[in-house]
């Protein structure tokens, strides 16, 4: 993983390397332990565990002291003040120690949740696009919320309870061993054996159900996310009932797994067995008393100690269920974090300013997980500052071709060179920072207009305003209620396609890339807006190597090179004039699109060349 882009992301979080890489590969338990003992967490966990042990021991001792005190009263000891103070001292020390332990536990639990969530998020940012193509967003959200939360619950309360339970089970047995006749050990030892066997069976049965339950929760979230993202389509096609029943079905699957967990819990025997142990202990104590081997105080102290077993027994149902959930959660997080990332940083990455010379050498490409080639043997060359237009039928591979330039996907075969250097030699950051995409369906973040224009760049207010003006976006921005500070909502829903596109152009002006990719193929806008956009586009292209995916005659006729794609092949390349004259497929595109004859189109393009 050291060569992964994840390393760069780690730097954002102030870390120079990924400290959990090895632990992640080893499995959930090792990964959790690594987090628990990472840096200052070590102090929290060691102090907390010590306090839990101290508290439990103090509690057990206070039980025997109660027994001794009652016996002392029976024996006629009238030093009430001393006896009461002794009970009080032990009784009061327990909550004080608990208070400190709880504070440490909560801090540790919150840190665990924060650190694992950060790690998961960083890992997601580092994954390749092909990885994200295959994920369901709702499921990833469930993992980063619900599954991460389970790791908090693992510490608070699960580990606390387990530890307390462990100490609470061991310390009474030790005290019985020290203070009372050995016969008293029969009941707790029998109980411990049954308890250990039942617990093992319980966790074994629970584990697959808990894991499945978390998977179903992820699926449920995926459906919810998909429905909300596609709410316009669902409503537009009156599919609310169908979407509702799909969700209900998944919700029922999730519910059934919850019930199944409950069933397994209900069959947990130790709860019954602890009651039997206490009854047996009482009977046993009475018999020993009759034989004069123990006193009444001994029996009270002994029963008090046996009663302590009730807590660990009862609580083990919940605590081990939480442990199972945490491990299932950790496994689900690791499944994503350990997944192979297609795009890996070069071990010796080059970061340099590029001029914009691009060469494709026999490039073929299939999307990961698919067999058919989307691009086949693509070769062409563009000089710095030139414009390449890509035309072709829908699905012919135009967008895919442009995505390969910034290594959003790796080529399957062949090479892409930028300034005569294979793009795999560049650092991803350096390469991608010098390439800008302008698309009408630009994803806008739920921030202000300024922040969306400056996205990832450091730009002063003046520079942002200038970029907006150059992109012909200034006027519509000034018409918004808070102008540049207007929040544009998730996915920029309050803006039209044309407005979003101009924001993308403004972003490109600000980032000043050497390579520009303009996906204009979906544009369907009125002529006034079109003119504004054209003006902006022609300015933003200046001095940059540009790829245009467009069928706009006004843009195409200026292109230095046009690639005609068909089913992943370049079937022709050349200038607009050459292609109109020589390429049947190309001619068809324009003759059907514009109400003009071939002669008229040739005339227009000749004029374009003259200008
Ligand atoms: N993420 C993906 N995973 C798998 N296949 C994909 C993916 N994206 C696109 N494709 C497939 O690759 C082919 C080329 O798609 P691409 O979007 O590059 O075509 P295009 O020429 O830009 O189409 P359009 O003009 O409709 O935008 C299509 O068959 C498409 O289904």
UniProtKB/TrEMBL annotation:
Keyword terms of this UniProt record: ATP-binding, Cell membrane, Membrane, Nucleotide-binding, Transmembrane, Transmembrane helix, Transport
Keyword Transport: yes
Protein name: ABC transporter ATP-binding protein
Entry GO terms, CC: plasma membrane
PROSITE patterns given in the database record: ABC_TM1F (PS50929), ABC_TRANSPORTER_1 (PS00211), ABC_TRANSPORTER_2 (PS50893)
Residues spanning the membrane: 43-61, 81-104, 151-178, 184-202, 268-287, 299-323
GO molecular function, one term: ATP binding
Lineage: Archaea, Promethearchaeati, Promethearchaeota, Promethearchaeia, Promethearchaeales
Membrane disposition: Multi-pass membrane protein
Ranges in a coiled coil: none
Top-level division of the source organism's lineage: Archaea
Subcellular location: Cell membrane
PANTHER family in the record: ATP-BINDING CASSETTE SUB-FAMILY B MEMBER 10, MITOCHONDRIAL, ATP-DEPENDENT PERMEASE MDL1, MITOCHONDRIAL
Domain ABC transmembrane type-1, residue spans: 49-325
Domain ABC transporter: 358-592
SUPFAM superfamilies associated with the record: ABC transporter transmembrane region (SSF90123), P-loop containing nucleoside triphosphate hydrolases (SSF52540)
Primary site of residence: membrane
């Amino acid at each position: 993983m050291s060569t992964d882009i994840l390393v760069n992301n780690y730097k954002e979080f102030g870390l120079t390397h990924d400290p959990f890489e090895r632990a992640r590969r080893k499995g959930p338990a090792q990964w959790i332990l690594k987090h628990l003992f990472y840096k200052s967490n070590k102090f929290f966990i060691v102090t907390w565990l010590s306090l839990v042990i101290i508290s439990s021991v103090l509690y057990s001792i206070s039980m025997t002291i109660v027994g001794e005190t009652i016996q002392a009263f029976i024996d006629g000891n009238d030093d009430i003040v001393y006896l009461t103070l002794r009970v009080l001292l032990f009784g009061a020390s327990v909550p004080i120690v608990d208070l400190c332990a709880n504070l440490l536990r909560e801090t540790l639990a919150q840190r665990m949740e924060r650190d694992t969530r950060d790690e998961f998020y960083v890992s997601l940012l580092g994954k390749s696009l092909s990885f994200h193509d295959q994920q369901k967003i709702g499921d990833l959200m469930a993992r980063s919320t619900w599954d991460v939360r389970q790791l908090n619950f693992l510490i608070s309360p699960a580990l606390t309870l387990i530890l307390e339970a462990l100490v609470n089970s061991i310390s009474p047995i030790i005290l019985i061993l020290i203070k009372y006749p050995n016969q008293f050990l029969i009941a707790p030892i029998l109980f411990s054996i049954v308890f250990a066997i039942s617990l093992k069976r319980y966790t074994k049965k629970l584990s697959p159900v808990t894991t499945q339950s978390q998977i179903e929760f992820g699926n449920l979230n995926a459906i919810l996310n998909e429905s909300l993202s596609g709410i316009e389509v669902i409503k537009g096609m009156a599919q609310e009932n169908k979407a509702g029943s799909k969700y209900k079905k998944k919700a029922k699957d999730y519910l059934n797994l919850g019930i199944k967990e409950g069933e397994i819990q209900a069959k947990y025997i130790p709860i019954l067995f602890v009651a039997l142990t206490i009854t047996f202990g009482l009977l046993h104590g009475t018999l020993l008393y009759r034989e004069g081997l123990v006193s009444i105080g001994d029996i009270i102290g002994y029963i008090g100690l046996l009663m302590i077993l009730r807590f660990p027994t009862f609580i083990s149902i919940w605590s081990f269920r939480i442990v199972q959930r945490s491990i299932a959660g950790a496994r689900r997080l690791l499944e994503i974090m350990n997944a192979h990332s297609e795009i890996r940083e070069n071990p010796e990455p080059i970061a340099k300013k590029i001029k914009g010379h691009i060469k494709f050498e026999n490039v073929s490409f299939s999307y990961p997980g698919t067999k058919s080639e989307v691009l086949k043997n693509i070769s062409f060359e563009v000089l710095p500052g030139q414009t390449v237009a890509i035309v072709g039928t829908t699905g012919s591979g135009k967008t895919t071709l442009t995505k390969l330039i910034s290594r959003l996907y790796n080529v399957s075969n062949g090479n892409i060179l930028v300034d005569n250097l294979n793009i795999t030699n560049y650092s991803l950051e350096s390469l991608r920072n010098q390439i800008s995409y302008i698309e009408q369906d630009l994803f806008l973040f739920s921030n202000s207009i300024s922040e969306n224009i400056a996205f990832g760049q450091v730009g002063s207010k003046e520079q942002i305003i200038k970029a907006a003006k150059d992109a012909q976006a200034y006027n519509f921005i000034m018409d918004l209620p808070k102008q540049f500070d207007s929040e544009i909502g998730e996915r920029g829903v309050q803006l039209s396609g044309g407005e979003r596109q101009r924001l993308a152009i403004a972003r490109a002006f600000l980032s000043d890339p050497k390579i520009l990719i303009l996906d204009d193929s979906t544009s369907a806008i009125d002529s006034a807006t079109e003119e504004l956009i054209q003006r902006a586009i022609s300015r933003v292209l200046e001095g940059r190597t540009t790829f245009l995916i467009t069928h706009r005659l006004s843009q195409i006729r200026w292109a230095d090179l046009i690639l005609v794609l068909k089913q992943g092949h370049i079937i022709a390349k050349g200038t607009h004039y050459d292609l109109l004259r020589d390429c049947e497929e190309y001619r068809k595109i324009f003759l059907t699109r514009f109400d003009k004859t071939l002669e008229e189109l040739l005339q227009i393009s000749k004029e374009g060349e003259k200008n």
